[in-house]
Amino acid sequence: MLPPRLRALGLTLAILAATANTALAQLYWDSNGNTAGAGATPSAIWSTAGADKNWNSSSAGTSATAKWTNDSAAIFSAGTDATGNYTVTVSATISVASITVQEGNPTFSGGTVNLSGTNPQISVASGSNLTFGSAFTGTGAIEKTGTGTLTFNSTFSYAGELRLTGGTIALAGITATVGTLHITGNTVLDFGNSTASTLNATTFVIDSGVTLSITNWVNATDFFYAQNWTGATANVLGSAPMNQITFSGSSSSNTHWQSSDKQVTGIPVPEPATYGAIFIGMSLACVLWRRRTGLVAA
Fold first, then answer.
1. Which of 1, 110, 206, 230 lies at a 20 to 30 A Cα distance from 56?
2. What is the pLDDT of residues 262-287, one digit of tens each?
3. Which of 255, 281, 282, 279 is nearest to 269 (CA)?
4. Whole-structure pTM over 0.85, yes or no?
């Protein structure tokens, strides 16, 4: 029998070997085979089928390409040449541990992307835009990282937590529903400038000292609802966490959470004195109108 120290050493080496064998695989999107890079606009099919060999284990894209292996980390793309717009057509359901966009502007179309793992990340580099046109599933707390833009454009629905650490989230004329929307870093929420968008959060959390800038939001056209807002007080202006949110064209001191419909809005709430002035003005206008029409004797 081996001495205790040697047995312990053997166990340690076995554990290390098992860990190395089960390390998360990183696959790089690559539509041009073993030619360096991925191609300037590498539109292709993302599937586990043997015919769709559009992934490379080499970050430079110089190895032979292969089909997708579920639960790997997806990196867009091999090399540095895929800087344009291109479409990634998702076939059936793809399971992915994390998504990283290093450069370029990929659009996911069709199928379903399932983000596996406990806390999967979607990282988008500065200057890049990942557009999600595929169905979106998962069970963990999904974290959007990087200073680039993540755009949702087929309806977005996720019952878990969506954690935003920075960059931009864009809604392209859709209704988005999320269980918990958690803002952990300075973030931009873009409601788009063409058609109406709605964001529904069952629970909304914005960390202390963090700001959320809301752009392209149009009152009574776009809507941001939070059924529960941690730390917030309905109809109160000027204090945290309400004043950590700024709607474009308004001031953070105007941001509030309406008790009537749970809407987060940048339209200021009139003071009680203002309500009185409005009521008096309306009453006088009504009297003058009735006098002019002869309904009230002069």
1. 110
2. 999 999 765 444 344 444 455 555 44
3. 255
4. no
pLDDT tens digit sequence for 161-201: 999 999 999 999 999 999 999 999 999 999 998 789 999 99
Which residue's structure tokens are 């203002």?
A: 274
What pLDDT sits at residue 272? 47
In this prediction, residue 262 carries a pLDDT of 98
CA 40 to chain centre: 26
CA-CA-CA-CA torsion sign (216, 218, 219, 220): negative
Q: And the tokens for 235?
A: 């109809």
By C-alpha distance, which of 80, 118, 116 is closest to 99?
Answer: 116
Name the residue with tokens 């963090």: 210
281 vs 5: CA distance, rounded Å? 91
pLDDT, tens digit (0-9, with 9 covering 90-100), for 130-155: 999 999 899 899 999 999 999 999 78
* Mean per-residue pLDDT over the chain, rounded: 87
